[in-house]
Design a protein that fits this description.
Helices cover 26% and strands 31% of the residues. It is α+β, with helices and mostly antiparallel strands and 156 residues long. It has one domain: Hotdog Thioesterase (Thiol Ester Dehydrase, Chain A, Roll), CATH 3.10.129.10. Strands 1, 2, 3, 4, 5 and 6 form a 6-stranded antiparallel sheet that branches. A hairpin with a 3-residue loop joins strand 5 and strand 6. The protein is globular and about 45 Å long. The model has no long low-confidence stretch (mean pLDDT 91).
Length: 156
């Protein structure tokens, strides 16, 4: 894993609001799909979820709208893990479009590893997932542009 996960969606016409740019709710959808790609990269994929009943839940999300994104824009979302502990991930995403040198929007997430048994509760990452998490933390550290844009969320 030498590159950050990159999600490359098409902007759909129904995502465009009355101002001619992407409706704010769809930024959340784009970032959510980017998190799905990260989960697959970490091994928290469909097979893992089926066999372990473990997944990630979003606890918190901060989104920063920095530039307008229009339907004709070609975009991609970079995703990285800023920090992690035994059960949580502090994830940063950055939506880029070709018209701008800087990110058009960023979002941070606090995600929790959860067991979805009869009682839903947090669960520690198994060793094989934790190795991949640590690799992503190291890789993300080389990409400071994924850091917080404004307010900060952090592990405590």
């Amino acid at each position: 894993m030498s590159e950050l996960p990159t999600y490359r969606p098409q902007i759909l016409a129904e995502w465009i609001d009355y101002n001619g740019h992407v409706r704010d709710a769809y930024y959340g959808l784009l970032f959510s799909y980017a998190i799905d790609d990260l989960m697959d990269r970490l091994g928290i994929d469909e097979a893992y979820r089926q066999s372990t009943k473990n997944t990630l839940y979003s606890l918190e999300m901060h989104t920063y709208f920095l530039r307008e994104v229009k339907q004709t824009d070609r975009i991609h979302v970079l995703t990285g893990i800023i920090a992690a502990d035994g059960k949580r991930l502090h994830v940063a995403t950055a939506l880029h479009c070709e018209r701008f040198p800087e990110a058009a929007a960023t979002s941070e997430f606090m995600l929790l590893h959860v067991h979805q048994g009869e009682v839903v509760k947090s669960a520690p990452f198994p060793p094989q997932i934790r190795v991949r998490v640590d690799e992503q933390v190291t890789l993300t550290a080389r990409h400071p542009a994924l850091g917080a844009a404004s307010r900060k969320i952090e592990l405590r």
